[in-house]
Specification:
The chain is an alpha+beta fold. Among the domains are: about 1-125, Jelly Rolls (Sandwich), CATH 2.60.120.260; about 125-255, Galactose-binding domain-like (Jelly Rolls, Sandwich); about 640-705, Maltose phosphorylase, domain 3 (Sandwich), CATH 2.60.420.10. Helix content is about 30%, strand content about 20%. Strands 5, 6, 9, 10, 11, 12, 15, 16 and 17 form a 9-stranded mixed beta sheet that branches. Strands 18-23-24-25-28 form a 5-stranded antiparallel beta sheet. Strand 23 (about 650-655) and strand 24 form a beta hairpin. The radius of gyration is 27 Å and the shape is globular. About 45% of the residues are buried.
Length: about 700
């Protein structure tokens, strides 16, 4: 259990003080995860608190929780992170904070014997970060009691709304939150109901707050024990008019420090970048959630896909370190990593859903996450802290590969080939997940399908990354050699199964070709032909991507690194479905879970706030602007701008551990102008499109060359 510290000096006054605390269920007793089951960790909420004061002789405890404390119910009637919060403002007792308050009707506190390790929080706290005013407040429907309005904040956010006009005493207001409006202009949330085959029926979204007015001028309703993912708010039951000044959108998330910015001459690309930033912001609320409105679960695959991209935008080191500790605590003794962390009992290893844990591309976050952040920040402590967890995961995956065979492979080839020792073709895997047009078939068939192309690729990459981590940490050579054998064995197995005799890939998908190149799975002599075939597959899809969850973020950088930046730009700027700019053209202010999250008819499906596809912005920073580290923490870095796609200028700034790096280029006629700011203690290698190269140190630098 993490504890939080607050400086309350400004709240104290000379003489006596009253200390009151509001407690709510939180994830501990509230609804959690896909199943929305409650009471998964326990049925009693509890508080451990002490008030400390700094005096002449150091810190001393002024007050702490014990049996002298008293408890009662409050004006908060219900509070759930998914369902929402309800208050009766008539029950607010202003005299509660007076020393003379009579608490004789309250009950004595009950001591709970709680066996937990209490540790200091290392991630920044969750805070109210920003406030938004509505862009539209419009009446809808035919309300039986009072009026109904729909509020549009103009931006999909995580947080809540503050209402400052609650109506006369006894007015009952219902506040519903969602991401989309139907054809009539009314709020719709049906696309966000959890509706998957493993449950007997749809689970309603929730996100409904309720408040009863006390009729006191200046009184406000602001729920503090829930958050919602929403752009639109439906307020029901108000007798009088509600306007923009009566409603405030409050953005709530972990208060991360912004470290990266990008802009260019294409306004739609800028809007895409901003949508990705908002999706990240909306899904960093204590843990990296998959979406802020539906499950709000810490899916390991989402952060595996996005963590390195997030490091271009915000300082996510402490935030990720905190969550990876949860992942390690959830990890099974044999090294298997849960698909969601914190993992509620209803989805744990011993639950009916336990078989969904241990998926390749999801569990690998314990390897790729620490390594990606080491590259971004140069901090070896996270590598050291994660070593046991990441090697256990690689060991689990390698053992699964060595001890089982997929039934279809066993039937086709009764005698196992030697390379199959490293072919991971057993267990449940989500695979490439949500490729364009994907619809979940019979879940049993999906769960049992052979996904060894994906799983073996990740076994190789994670083992190879673990080798690099071991070398950085100075781990004994025998351990590193064992990991190296797994990495090389998995690559050999992947080539044996998925590279044909003519050098082509057995699986003719964009995703397989991206992995082959990005993970170094094919020999050097085949990289050119594999990259050329990837371009052909893009062309065959009329300039569209067909990648899914795991490889979409790698697609554009892989093409550019292979010398096909023009195709990467074609995909970036594609504006028919499926594409990123289709989202933008259809009004997205955050990234969608599905490429057709809002179809051409304006009908929504699934979450409209899922950041994983937003990993594309790494291409904007690394290739369009051309900035990427070449040693951990940007002590050395490359500036290799790649103009294209009709862009006439681009600019990026990154606040590295050594200071701000600023890259800006512009095209003027036949000339390219590059301006670069290099912070102290670092060295930049500059490579311009026409071949000019230079190595420069701290300071301001400028070049003008032929475009």
């Amino acid at each position: 259990m993490q504890f939080q510290s607050y400086d309350v000096s400004g709240l104290l006054r000379p003489g006596g003080n009253v200390l009151t605390v509001l407690l709510a269920d939180g994830w501990y007793r509230g609804q959690v995860g896909m199943s929305r089951s409650a009471d998964q960790y326990g049925t009693d909420i509890a508080l451990r608190l002490q008030l400390e004061v700094l005096g002449e002789h150091g810190w001393s405890v002024l007050a702490g929780t014990d049996t002298s404390w008293r408890t009662s119910t409050s004006h908060v009637l219900t509070a759930d992170l998914i369902a929402g919060q309800a208050e009766d403002r008539r029950l607010v007792d202003a005299s509660l904070h007076a020393l003379a308050y009579d608490d004789s009707g309250w009950s004595p506190a009950v001591v709970r014997d709680v066996h937990v390790a209490v540790v200091r929080a290392i991630a920044p706290p969750v805070r109210r970060v920003e406030e938004l005013r509505p862009v539209v407040v419009a009446p809808v429907g035919n309300a039986v009691v009072g009026n109904t309005v729909v509020v549009d904040l103009g931006q999909n956010i995580n947080g809540w709304v503050r209402l400052s006009n609650l109506g006369p005493a006894g007015t009952q207001l219902t506040v519903r939150h969602g991401e989309h409006l139907d054809a009539s202009g009314d709020l719709t949330t049906s696309h966000l109901d959890v509706n998957v085959p493993i449950f007997s029926g749809p689970l309603p979204l929730g996100q409904v707050d309720r408040v009863v007015s006390a009729g006191i001028a200046g009184d406000t309703f602001e729920p503090r024990f829930t958050t919602h993912g929403f752009r639109f708010v439906r307020i029901e039951g108000h007798p009088g008019p509600l306007g923009p000044d009566d409603v405030t959108g409050v953005v709530v998330h972990t208060d991360l420090q912004r470290t990266g910015w990008f802009e260019c001459s294409d306004e739609r690309v800028n809007r895409l970048h901003e949508a990705v930033v908002w999706s990240l912001r909306d899904n960093v609320c204590g843990i990296p959630t998959d979406c802020p409105q539906r499950e709000r679960a810490g899916w390991t695959g989402d952060w595996q896909v996005f963590a390195s991209t997030a490091a271009y935008l915000y300082d996510v080191l402490g935030f990720t370190r905190s969550w990876l500790r949860d992942v390690a605590l959830d990890q099974r003794a044999d090294g298997c990593v849960a698909g969601v962390s914190p993992c509620p009992p209803s989805e744990g290893f011993d639950s009916p859903l336990g078989r969904l844990n241990g998926s390749a591309g999801w569990g690998d976050v314990v390897v790729s996450g620490p390594w990606g952040l080491y590259e971004a920040y140069g901090d070896t402590s996270l590598l050291r802290e994660s070593w046991e967890s990441l090697t256990a995961w690689v060991g689990y995956a390698a053992h699964a590969a060595a001890t089982g065979r997929h039934p279809t492979r066993e039937a086709a080839r009764p005698a196992a080939a030697a390379h199959e020792k490293y072919l991971w073709d057993t267990g449940f895997h989500w695979g490439e997940w949500l490729e364009p047009g994907f619809e979940l078939p019979d879940f049993g068939a999906f769960a049992g399908a052979d996904k060894s192309e994906v799983a073996t690729a990740y076994l190789h990459r994670s083992a190879a990354t673990a080798v690099r981590i071991g070398e950085v940490l100075g781990v004994d050579e025998a351990t590193v050699a064992g990991l190296r054998a797994i990495a090389e064995g998995a690559r050999t197995a992947w080539q044996a199964e998925f590279v044909r005799a003519d050098g082509s890939l057995a699986l003719q998908s964009q995703a397989s070709h991206v992995r082959a190149l990005a993970f170094g799975l094919v020999p050097d002599e085949l990289r050119g032909s594999v990259a050329t075939r990837l371009v052909e597959l893009v062309d065959a899809a009329d300039g569209h991507l067909t990648t899914g969850f795991l490889s979409t973020g790698l697609l554009l950088p892989t093409l550019a690194d292979a010398g096909h930046a023009a195709t990467a730009y074609e995909l970036l700027l594609q504006d028919t479905e499926p594409s990123w700019l289709t989202m933008i053209d259809r009004g997205a202010t955050t990234v969608w879970e599905r490429w057709n999250g809002v179809d051409a008819n304006g009908v929504a499906s699934e979450s409209l706030n899922h950041y994983s596809k937003g990993a594309v912005v790494s291409f904007l920073h690394q290739h369009v602007a051309g900035l990427r580290p070449t040693s951990p923490g940007y002590r050395t870095f490359d500036v290799r701008p790649t103009p294209g796609g009709g862009l006439t200028w681009a600019r990026a700034r990154h606040d590295s551990p050594f200071g701000s790096i600023v890259v800006a280029w512009r095209l003027e006629g036949v000339e390219l102008h590059l301006d670069l700011e290099v912070p102290g203690g670092t060295t930049a290698r500059v490579v311009l499109p026409e071949g000019t190269t230079a190595t420069v140190g701290p300071g301001l630098h400028a070049w003008t060359v032929r475009a």
